[in-house]
Amino acid sequence: MKKLLLTGVFKPFGVSDEYGEALATMELLNNQVTREQGIHSPRSNNPSFGLYIMAENIEIPATVLDFPSWEDFTKEIDAGNYTHVGISFIAPNVIKARRMAQYVRQKSPSTVILLGGHGAAIPELSDIVDYDEVCRGEGVTWLRRYFGEDIDKPIVHPVVHSGVRKFVYGAPIISEAGIIITGVGCQNTCRFCATSHKFEKQYTAFLSSGKDVFDACVKTEKALKVTDFALMDENFCKSPRRARELLVEMEKEGKAYTFSTFSSAETIGKLGIDYLVRVGVKFLWIGVESKANVFEKTVGVDLHALLADLQNHGITVLASAILFMEHHDKQTIHEDIDWAISLESDLLQFMQFGPIPGTRLYKDYDAEGKLLKNIPWPKQHGQDEIWFNHPHFTLKETASYTKEAFIKKFHTHGPGVINMAHTYLKGYLTAKRETEEREKAGLVWDSKTLRYVKGDGPVRDEFMIKRLEAMKLSALEFRPILKVAEMYAPNWESAQKARMIAEKFEQTFGPPTVKERILAPVVRLLAWLEQMRLKRDGVVMRQPHTIRKTYPDRHATAPKATPDHRWVRHREHKRPAESAQHTEAKAEVK
Ligand code: SF4
């Protein structure tokens, strides 16, 4: 009987030891977006969502182990009787994967070791890790094919939180959200992009219609009691049909869900700002990359105007810029940093132009002999020193330029959370005004053209009334932190900005409620404690709890399928005996 363990690498994360690096964590925002913002940095660990969708969609019994400690992992191997263990990792975590694989070999020599994730593209992987198979491309199809299952079965969407152990100013007050994985891959094929290359420059939709996306939201809402979702999709706006259908479903059912997602600049215009507001996009990650416009996705787009329009309509923007590209020298890199800051996005990521295994950039740099092969893998994460020869920068300079870029953004525009609070407030006011104006003018939403058009007369826009309520809640979520943002502001301008936003909140929503008044001193106390910890330790690293989730054997309902032996390399994989277990997947958090 086959039995699969799908696991992420072991904690601790964000700690420099023999297996990992301080600047490689499971916290996307703190690690590379609000870096250098100290106490103002929102904290949240991001689950390895790929593991859950794979486990949910194969027929053999599977267990997901996310954020395990070494003890959790070894206990699972010792007691689990797994025929297969899949380890997912990024390149900087390959040493952790090696240790895990060594343990499996030693304790359970007959177990098949599968490797997956972006780290599995390391060319000399077999010299580093002892394994049997590498999962390439999209994981659900790969695993189904590998185990001889039906690769065309519809995808069942798993229920997963978008972040765990969430804090801001030391207070656990960030609201919960679910994750919806609508698809993987991107056809834009930017040369440096690991995602695009991992999925063979193709987009694979897990949820191909708007109804599918909506149903996944409803399922997650029921299970987690959330109405806010991270849409994991490199370019959600690229499929206008699906986007349009999603809004139709939401309007039909009266659900004003909110979404955070990714989009390339050139696709945003295809849907338009009215659509984005109406469907509830509240956070967009946009790769702005460089003033030099070296990527097609930004050519001809006025990014300053685009970002301002999004923010005025309540969509917080995380812009992502790249450092140490080929055209960067000591002058042009400053021009690019200043240009990225001048976009005035709420949040700004600076990521190094890192050749990641599997990408065209990696192949090019390898062929040109630019890769520095002596840099250890754990250091190749894009936030410290680069791992290739750049004609204009020493390695030490690359670390300090990166750090200084974050500091400059922080000191120019203040804490990201304050910018987000301001954007949500501005958006609520804009949407309220525009809704009232449209109602007076008799404009109604046309779901085909995604525009407001002349209707038969003044009519109340019931869905936008719901949307405004959701926008108000998104803004008010930030109210308890406005005072501490002012108290710990990095400079006078930031303190002033926090005060101005707090006043605008009061003008818009009235004085704080009793609950907000009670919460405010609690947040102040927790922020003070957090600041003390930061002063004492330099960094606060809360490790996420281990998540263990089991998925039943679904063979009893599976159609017969013939194993595809192209994927079977070292071992013979027999179809497991059928079982009649149909129990719900069980999760436990340690
Ligand atoms: S647009 Fe974004 S996701 Fe698509 S290939 Fe470029 S960097 Fe990757």
Question: Can you put this structure into words, describing what you see?
Answer:
- The protein is α/β, with parallel strands linked by helices and 590 residues long.
- The protein is built from 20 helices and 19 strands.
- The chain has a seven-stranded mixed sheet with strand order 6-5-4-1-3-18-19, sandwiched between helices. It has a six-stranded parallel sheet with strand order 8-11-12-13-14-15.
- α3 packs parallel to α4 and α8 packs across α9.
- The longest helix is centred in the C-terminal third of the chain and has 26 residues.
- It starts with a strand and ends with a strand.
Under the CATH scheme, which architecture of the largest domain would be assigned? Alpha-Beta Horseshoe
Count every beta strand, where a strand is a DSSP E run of 2 or more residues. 19
Can you count the helices? 20
Task: Assign the structural class, choosing from mainly alpha, mainly beta, alpha/beta, alpha+beta, or little secondary structure.
Answer: alpha/beta
Mind telling me the CATH superfamily name of the largest domain?
tm_1862 like domain
Poorly predicted spans: 558-590
Task: Give the count of structural domains.
Answer: 3
Distance between the termini: 28 Å
- Main pleated-sheet profile: 7 strands, mixed
Q: Which kinds of small molecule does this entry bind, naming each only once?
A: iron/sulfur cluster
Radius of gyration equals: 24 Å
Q: Classify the beta-strand content into a percent band.
A: 5-15%
- Residues in helix, %: 25-40%
User: How would you classify the quaternary structure?
Assistant: single chain
Described by the principal axes of the CA atoms, the overall outline is globular
